[in-house]
Amino acid sequence: MTRLLELEDVEARYGPVHALHGISLAVDEGSVVAVLGPNGAGKTTTLRAISGTVRRSGRIQFAGRPLTRIGPDGVARLGIAHVPEGRGTFSELTVWENLRLGAYTRRGSVQPELERVFTYFPWLSERRRQQAGTLSGGEQQMLALARAFVHRPRLLLLDEPSLGLAPVLVAELFRIVRDLNETEGLTVLVVEQNAHLALQAADVGYVLEAGRVALSGTTADLKADDSVRRSYLGY
Amino acid sequence: MGALERLPPLASLLLVAGAAGLLVGSLRSEVFAQLTVQGLALGGVYASLALALVLVYRATRVVNFAQGELAMATTYVAYQLIKWGLSYWEAFFATLAIAFVLGTVLELALVRPVQHRSVIAAVIVTVGLFILIDGVVNWIWGGDFKYMATPFGTKTYNLGGVSIARLYPGMLGVVLVSVVLVWALFRFTKLGLGMRAAALRPAESALVGVRVDRMLAIGWGLAAVLGAVAGLMAEPSQFFLDPTLMQPILVYAFAAAVLGGLESPAGAVVGGLAIGVSLNLVVQYVHSITSELQTPFAFAVLLVVLVLKPSGLFGHREVRRV
User: What is the 3-state secondary structure (H, E, C) of chain B?
Assistant: First the structure.
């Protein structure tokens, strides 16, 4: 497998507050990688450092290109779709317009992409003219995910997809992510509070603590690790 | 610009009542009909400038006090182009292109650096720009009256016994076509979607690959184009060009934008037409309000709206999820 994304000694700060103290991690093409850790460990900031929505330093390589000097729109154009925490749907726009924005970086007709996405989210097709803000929280989360798929990213960054969702929807969402990974080879880097879910869906996991990587390995190894079990899985 | 589909009930009621009143009045009196048509034409000018203010406000949260002066300056550009031998309509379209470039350059050079500092910094920049443009125009062309070719000829139409100068339907037509084109650009094109997204949620827009900075600059460019249309249509209604051309019109445009709700493009257009017609009729029929009191009257409208309904007739209360 080839390396798609590599972070080496990445630091990030919000004003005077240091959020990342030198994170290193790697994501192979076609894999699902989970980032775990308690609140404030720097999980969200790690994703934001990749997409360029926080000031960062260190080395970030995506498909052989350095990202550290590129802004968020440039990162998106390179094929990284970031679904931020709290969804980031454009609630004032229609469902269709949200999806169209997902394909903003693509040239030519987006109809085939939309049809493809509707096979995963059939209900979106019927509601394409509806204002996104009138969807339920779970539907908006699905829309955010659908929007990212229309982008046809090489790498999908998912931030806390389970936050505020009913368990049934969470399972559905992870099933779709896994499905896309298996059938279309989509590479995913997911930040998740729910360690059970994350370790089940992912191939490789990183545990962050206080802005550093505390532990990493295959999810099988992590599940067997005593400290992970005690701190995150609760048995 | 999706507000056209969902008119608030109060606004639609006022709209229908107003239109019915104007129709009945026009059928009963020739003077009333003439004043209505003229008022709508002038209102179109206010609407165009008001829409420019709204576009800039939505894109960059800046109230551009220089919007009127920018429109005046571009009208001088058209005057100069005609003097150099272009026909009126050649000069018209060339001026719109120049206005677009001017608008984007101003955003990039002057507004961008202060935009995120503070509201007051942005206000000072646009007020400074007002003074700068005024000074430059006076320096290049002088303050005396200039006369431009009339775009619509001097003929009059006869509509059921009411004679109407071709100028007014012409003005209104040009303004409405420009407004519809801008609306269609926002509503139906990828660029327009990107601009709407960038104005609504800049951070999320960047994440899907929208070049937010570029969108905001284009927004200023489009606003300058609408302003140029307003200036070019204001000139024939005044019959001459001088550096104060747009100053009262800026006040009417502000009143129109506030009346419609500063965030609503449709509101700005309807507001502009409403202000144009009502000013014209009020000056004619309310004898205590003479034409000298037109501008204060517009200010009074502005004040009343700000006190009674700050979100305007078309505005929604600010609902924003964080």
Answer: CHHHCCCCHHHHHHHHHHHHHHHHHHHHCHHHHHHHHHHHHHHHHHHHHHHHHHHHHHHHCCCCCCHHHHHHHHHHHHHHHHHCCCCHHHHHHHHHHHHHHHHHHHHHHHHHHHHCCCHHHHHHHHHHHHHHHHHHHHHHHCCCCECCCCCCCCCEEEECCEEEECHHHHHHHHHHHHHHHHHHHHHHCHHHHHHHHHHHCHHHHHHCCCCHHHHHHHHHHHHHHHHHHHHHHHHHHHCCECCCCCHHHHHHHHHHHHHHCCCCHHHHHHHHHHHHHHHHHHHHHCCCCCHHHHHHHHHHHHHHHHHHCCCCCCCCCCCCCC
